[in-house]
Backbone:
């Protein structure tokens, strides 16, 4: 009984963690705008955490450079299951204009399973909210809560 | 004693919050917003200039020969796009247009990242060579 209540209430406050895998900072700025007073995703209980061990949803930006790849994998593996990985912007989906570069090692889904990809360069904060709502639905499914 | 911002502080008590209630309320986009590509396949001539100017190489063109003529298929991968609008600027027939749609989300079930369009291009008949013409005359 108590476990069920805890499971249900965990859905109401999904904490997010933001990994920068060689991003140009465009998507990062838009993600910060999402947490500010104008778009305020804290309406959905979303909060940015400083450590991956507290997170439920991971936002990855950037085309995964060779330098950040190992660190990104280490950070994502520290996020407890069930987790939802969201890729933000065009870069993690297809490397965007950096594809073919010697320092870029492929799109994100080459390394980790991506649940939701949000397109745009950078995506509008509204589009990010749409993606976040999709991610919440997936998190609900993964947790087995209806 | 002075209270420098007392006017604003009191005024803000009676104001609504600045938060946009987004999923429940639609947004108005600014003019000239560059969103998802809209491709008009009836206008396209398959010249391939959009492919040349695309920095992210998000556009692919595939040509298939069918009985009616060459079937040209243009595919725009929005997951690779930078939304620079070079393709629509350089298109000689203005077949590409960047629309107002901003929400592009790909999950396991749905994928609205790819904009596709195909048309059939009929080549003009080959001009007859001189030798063939001479052969016709003899007959």
Residues:
């Amino acid at each position: 009984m108590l476990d069920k209540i805890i499971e249900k209430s965990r859905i109401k406050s999904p904490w997010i963690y933001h990994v920068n895998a060689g991003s140009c900072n465009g998507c990062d700025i838009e993600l910060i705008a999402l947490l500010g007073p104008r778009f305020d995703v804290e309406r959905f209980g979303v909060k940015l955490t400083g450590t991956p061990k507290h997170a439920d949803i991971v936002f990855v930006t950037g085309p995964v450079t060779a330098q950040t790849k190992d660190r990104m994998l280490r950070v994502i593996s520290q996020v407890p299951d069930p987790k939802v990985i969201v890729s933000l912007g065009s870069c993690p989906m297809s490397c965007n204009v950096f594809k073919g570069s010697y320092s870029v090692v492929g799109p994100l889904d080459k390394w980790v399973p991506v649940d939701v990809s949000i397109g745009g360069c950078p995506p509008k904060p509204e589009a990010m909210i749409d993606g976040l709502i999709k991610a919440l639905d997936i998190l609900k499914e993964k947790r087995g809560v209806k | 004693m002075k209270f420098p911002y007392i006017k604003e502080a009191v005024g803000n008590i009676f104001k609504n919050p600045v938060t946009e209630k987004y999923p429940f309320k639609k947004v108005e986009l600014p003019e000239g917003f560059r969103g998802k590509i809209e491709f008009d396949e009836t206008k396209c001539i398959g010249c391939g200039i959009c492919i040349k100017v695309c920095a992210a190489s998000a556009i692919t063109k595939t040509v298939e020969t069918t009985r009616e003529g060459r079937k040209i298929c243009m595919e725009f991968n929005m997951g690779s796009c930078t939304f620079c609008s070079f393709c629509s600027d350089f298109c000689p027939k203005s077949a590409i247009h960047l629309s107002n749609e901003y929400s592009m989300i790909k999950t396991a079930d749905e994928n609205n990242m790819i904009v596709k369009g195909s048309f059939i291009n009929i080549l003009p008949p080959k001009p007859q060579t001189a030798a063939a013409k001479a052969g016709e005359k003899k007959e």
